[in-house]
## 1
Amino acid sequence: MNSRNSRKRGLWLILPVSLAACLAVLVYEQRPAQAPSPDTVIESLPVKKPAPEAVEFRMTDFENGWLRYSDGKTKVTNDGGAVWRDEASDLPVQTLSGGGAGGAAPVRGEWSLAPAEEPKPATILYEAKSYPVKQSQFLTDRIGWALLDSGSGLALPLLVTTDGGETWRGEVTADVREAVQAEKKREAQAAQEAALYETPEQARLAIRSKWTLLPDQAFVGDIVLVRHDKPGEVSWQGKTYKLQPFGSGYYTYLPISMQVKPGEYPIGGLTLTVKDKKFQTQYLQVSQQMESMRQDTDRIQADQKKIDAARSKSEPEFLFSSAFIQPIQGILTTPYGYTRYVNGKWDSSHTALDLAAKEGTPIKATNDGIVALADSLYLTGNAIYLDHGMGLFSQYAHLSELRVKTGDRVKKGDIIGLVGTTGFSTGPHLHFTFWAHNVPTNPNLFFDTMPFRWVRQAK
Ligand SMILES: [Zn+2]
């Protein structure tokens, strides 16, 4: 279909002689837009009617489209333009009335990757030659079509691009079809991704943006989910976080540790505002026997090795698809972030929630995940780490009983263990928190929501 125009032909015209002994010979192409006026053509020369010209087209989706000719006839395609055939009588009427140039949007799913602003090239480059464009249509920011102005000399002046208009092709070859199939897949992935956002508007905004910070304002001790439209990395607090593919984008968590200085930080093309927060102080009295537990550095280090190994591997996908739940309904005895003094000495920031409850109270998995570690540890007692994917883990400590084992897959709400007071603990309670890339993070941010819905500013 990219063969040179068979219509292209020259006509030799001899003008009537009005000036003595002067013959003018003109050569021109038969171009309807510049057709000679009838009185300059010698009537006796055989003049063929110009071939009908493609005047308008529309791709209704990646497969189907129509092409209208100047003689009123229409050709249709059902294979993305590889073959155009005469209009079938069963072609739905609304397909034809569904808008010509500048008409209705392509009929596709809600999560079509139609560009926010459709490019409207006035000319395009094809085989090193520039052609004026009559009409163009971009189905996505990569896949587009352009109908050339009359006189292009091409048999079928409808060109296709798979790289957003950088290069144009005269034929729908196998690799064009492959690129189109990849875009269809990307649209399906966008739908999967969009389903996790709170509203279609928020999903649309994220999916059409280069960078998204969920949210773009947070407190020390919080966590942010970053989305980019391309693969790559994000540098944050001296570390590099690889963006992992999900849906039609690429994501990573950025943990904002208690040590991060409040301020404004550039992330991609955006600014993350980290705000200061004053945490209260808690004074804890424990027996000398318990206090001495924390001197056994060998056992503590051996446990830390197990924990580090468990948290070093995380599924490269989000394992959850709905809001997180609180694992038990207990009494909050130590909130997140409290500065803790043990027996009068500064100890640490309590980067978890302590929820007091009766011994034996069933503990639910906060969301779907994989048991990264279920073991009896020295300080945290019977403890569980659940991998929720992409470097995010939930932690449950001081259990009286473990009901899962390392490697198990769990669903949100599954009973994974029972409340107890094992390890460094003064009474039955659940010590619960999240870790993102090995940094503890505020569990309150997760309850009844999920990271894709962290659009509101932190309070
Ligand atoms: Zn605790």
## 2
Amino acid sequence: MSHWKSAVDAAIAANSHRPESKYLQLATIRRDGRPAARTLVFRRFQEATHSLIFCTDKRSEKVAEMDDNPNVEACWYFPETRQQFRFMGKLRGIGLREGFPEETDLRRVVWRGLTDDSRRSFAWPAPGEEAAALEAFNVEIPSPVEPLDTFILLLLEPEEVDALDLRTHPHRRVRWSINNGIWTGSPRNP
Ligand SMILES: Cc1cc2nc3c(=O)[nH]c(=O)nc-3n(C[C@H](O)[C@H](O)[C@H](O)COP(=O)(O)O)c2cc1C
């Protein structure tokens, strides 16, 4: 049984010609206890912790929700290889307050990898607020080097991973959990 991380790396490679395979759904918990789900682009792994990295605007609702309750689940489907991975864990931000130098560097690296259009969206009026006048969206292209204050990274550090593979009969499902830094997989009925 290959480790979930190797399986995800292999799925990313096998699905790389399908841009939508980098989109996954992240569910948070709203203040009133109801769930909130939205699509995000997977950017990369933080290799040491196997955390999934996303970027977002610090003014967005998911960030306030994470502050109240960091427990989240992300669901990622790879259409070419018909695999689903569900990541349960805690979410935290990089760029919200003074951080470790290597994390500040990581934030810069991800910012530098964005397109001008993506970088520009971080200078738009605050997400989720009542729609602003169109002129408010005619913003300058920001520096490609130094991230805007609104730009943050979200790190989902998995505590459990549920891997489902639809290619076999019967389908194969493994529930992975981590204990003292060691991942173990338990085969489950699909
Ligand atoms: C294909 C696709 C990719 C998206 N990627 C991101 C992303 O990487 N980061 C992000 O903050 N929002 C992304 N969004 C927008 C979010 O789904 C969401 O609408 C927005 O972040 C506001 O969410 P919130 O109000 O729950 O915080 C994407 C939407 C789509 C449809």
## 3
Amino acid sequence: MQNRMMITGAGSGLGREIALRWARDGWRLALADVNEAGLGETLELVRAAGGDGFIQRCDVRDYSQLTALAQACEAKFGGIDVIVNNAGVASGGFFDELSLEDWDWQIAINLMGVVKGCKAFLPLLERSKGKIVNIASMAALMQGPAMSNYNVAKAGVVALSESLLIELKQQEIGVHVVCPSFFQTNLLDSFRGPTPAMKAQVGKLLESSPISAADIADYIYAEMAKDEFMILPHEQGRMAWALKQKNPQLLYDEMISMADRMRAKGKPA
Ligand SMILES: NC(=O)c1ccc[n+]([C@@H]2O[C@H](COP(=O)([O-])OP(=O)(O)OC[C@H]3O[C@@H](n4cnc5c(N)ncnc54)[C@H](O)[C@@H]3O)[C@@H](O)[C@H]2O)c1
């Protein structure tokens, strides 16, 4: 029976809601984050929801912290069945405004954090014939304007997930990749970008979501049960992706006018 899950970025937002969704089925959860106060709150909620587990501070940029987390899962749970590489940060800015440091920071967390999570837990997953769930974004598929470093990191997560889907089939390890559109969480707290105006624009996009982080966790749960590889929780996202596959130029044109609108809004009055 599979009932042990590890989640990075579990101290807030989607990571917390995924923990609670599986806690309701009595799962044991290894909850990791750099935000220890948030982790403590998540564990309390997990226990109230019917699950249990432990918390561990883990910065996904540091491979040794991820291997230590894998060892803790081994020691406390005797292994792991599902890992959710969810920890992430937000960023924005047109390409000419982004520094190389902005790129390094974004890639180190949102892309290499996922690579390192998969690598650190692979030996445990091989034994349990477990599952990898990588949290990417619609940004991976749509390449919205003024977030090229985020787009590239998340597109890398999709490419990694596709590669692992193919390569790990033989070891009977399942792979899923999740691409949500914007939804309301604390993601803006980590935002790194050139201007307060850009941050405010991203904030409005997060608020505009018709679905919550809890809805997304429910959707992931249902799609995993159907063994779906690519999980697109927003209806609008599913429509946009279908449209882009048929007619990419249409989407590029839409993104170009969106970039023009954003530039106009970002200009000082
Ligand atoms: N909110 C959205 O609109 C949205 C849309 C698409 C994808 N996503 C993705 O969903 C995932 C979860 O984000 P969220 O929206 O719940 O945001 P959130 O900020 O509420 O949660 C992210 C968590 O990741 C943690 N974290 C950040 N850097 C870390 C690091 N180096 N090591 C370990 N933990 C770290 C934060 O402390 C935080 O608790 C992210 O990968 C994000 O890119 C979010």
## 4
Amino acid sequence: MAVTLQDTKLELERLVADATKDFSEVDESRSLNDLRVKYLGDKSVIVNMRRNMKDVPKEDKPEFGKLINKVLGLINESFEEAKTKIETAELNAKLEQERIDPSLPGLGTKLGHLHPLTQVSNDIVSIFEKMGFSLVDGPEIENTYYNFTALNTPEDHPARDEQDTFYTKLGEEVLLRSHTSSIQIRAMERLKPPFRIIGHGRVYRNEEVNARKMPFFHQLEVMMIEENVNFGHMKWVLNEFLKQFFGTDVPTRFRPDFFPFTEPSAELDAQCVFCKGKGCATCGQRGWLELMGCGMVDPNVLEMAGIDPEKYSGFAAGLGIDRFAMLKYKINDIRFMFNGDQRFLNQF
Ligand SMILES: [Zn+2]
């Protein structure tokens, strides 16, 4: 079939117009590729025309060839233009996504902090360490000897009762320590007097949970065994400790009390640091706060631990770390200490 130059020119003009329009409107790579196949691919009109050059009259061939090359060039140009436009747009979109604004504030790193109980026990320990006391430790799972017997607690003492103490299935002798005094007994067996020690940790008692009580809490023990230690030494050490802990001179009073492992025994009250003795909600309008039990170590306890009571004497005191933390930070419910609520913990 003969192909006339005139027809071809018209067809090519239309082709160039269509291609230019299509390429100028395309705006993403996949459609661009479809257009490239349509206008420049193996089955495209222009490639077909070049293939069919053999049907063109001999005299028209040079012009025909030139025409096709020109059209190919124009379509290619449109294609390259569209390609550049799309690639630039895609690159800009990517850059926009990855754009960094150096004027924005940094994200920052959230630092953790110590639990208020840990802060308070660290404070207490460091005050006693400055007075020459060293920190000792003991197990939370104890046996009745260290928890009761060596502390002069009689076999029929109610504290030994299952209603007060958590016994374990490891045998009837094995329990969760009900006070940290057991740490003192282990230390007395191990150390040679003179010594000044403190020990602290978690203790367990079979208590109902309420605002003031938990089945576990934290105690700290203080003990000083030397020659000629008397009640006056104890008063000085404990008063000095309270002064440093509360940051002010605190009037105190020692009321007689009873503990199996000290004789004489006393309860140490401090004038309420919040109302200065006038009476407030924290001290229950009494003007005094009960802070710790203390006393001179019973000679029987010294003897059982292998310390000569004729030569040495000493005092022991025990306080609740939870109570000190509650006083220091004015917390009115002990359960806040243990429920892990960030709104509470982040205040410290
Ligand atoms: Zn008060």
